Amino acid sequence: MLNRNLNALVSGQTNYKRMKSCKSCLKINELIMRLKIKNIVAIFLLLLIVGAFSSCSTRKRIFKAPIKKEGAKYLFSQLKDHELRFETFSSKFSVHYAQGNKKISFNGHIRIQKDSTIWVSISPILGIEMARIMITPDSVKVINRANKTYYEENFNFVTDYLNSAMDFDMMQAFLMGNDFTFYEKGNWKTSLDGNYYKLVTANRRKLKKYVENSEKINIPIQNTWLDPFTFKIMKVMVKEINRQHSKKLTATYDNFFVVDQQMMPLHIEFEIKAEDKMNIYIDYSRVALDKELRFPFGISSKYKKISLK
User: Fold this and answer.
1) Tens digit of pLDDT for each residue in 149-183?
2) Tens digit of pLDDT for each residue in 229-241?
3) Cα(128)–Cα(146) distance, rounded to whole angstroms?
4) CA 84 to each of CA 106, 195, 206, 262: distance values in angstroms, whole numbers, following the listed order
5) In 158, 178, 245, 300, which residue has its Cα 20 to 30 A from 273's Cα atom?
6) Rg of the Cα atoms in the chain
7) pTM, to two decimals
8) CA–CA distance, 122 with 89 (Å, rounded to integer)
9) Running DSSP on this structure, what letter comes out for residue 61?
10) Which residues, including other chains, have CB under 8 Å from residue 74's CB and lie 6 or more apart?
């Protein structure tokens, strides 16, 4: 009986009423439907997997094409063509700083006159200014309104504080998500690293006409990751290596925003690894480019000058 019903089911000769009245046939029908559904699901999943691999393979071929055809010079030129171009920059910001068990957060304003001045006003609470900083290519000045003191140091103070080679051009580039302006183009090697182009160079030196006095800053190792569509810098890593210990400064860029038809990152994460590890997180808001700016830095005669050396 069961065999006859099965044969009839497969051949399509069993009518609906007879199937409905036959419990064995209903079970068989249910079994066949389950098998069909499982097969459909399996085929669907297989198509997804094949499609994913195919898409990934196609994407990689597309990304690799400029590397094979044009090489590192093409990617570096695209990097330069898509940098943020400005004469002045201003923004509100928030900073979160962590070093060991020490954690600090504060807000403020930043203004930059390209290649000449970085001005920062720090307001931790209720918009009341607690400190003001003025950085130029050769000096660092700080007013501490909390204890009515101020100090002036040369730019080496920044290098010593960060425990990493740094000059004004590098600091400005890190803050803007740009490449370094006053350095050699370098001999770059390129590869595809995940979803990004990776540019690597070594011993990139500062151009002689921008070298101050006996300044000797070069970049032993620099890795730069580019977005393959926008050619914006997504991450840059500068590394120094010596026998005693290595130093590494990494900047990661995210949350890109269009301002004056240009893209710039609103979120930056700095990680500095030397003798100690330091993390700095910066978020920009209310960004403006090429507006007329003032950089006030008057020091009250009541303030006392101190030295940090």
Assistant:
1) 999 988 888 877 776 678 899 999 999 999 998 88
2) 999 999 999 988 7
3) 10
4) 26, 22, 21, 6
5) 178
6) 31
7) 0.77
8) 17
9) H
10) 66
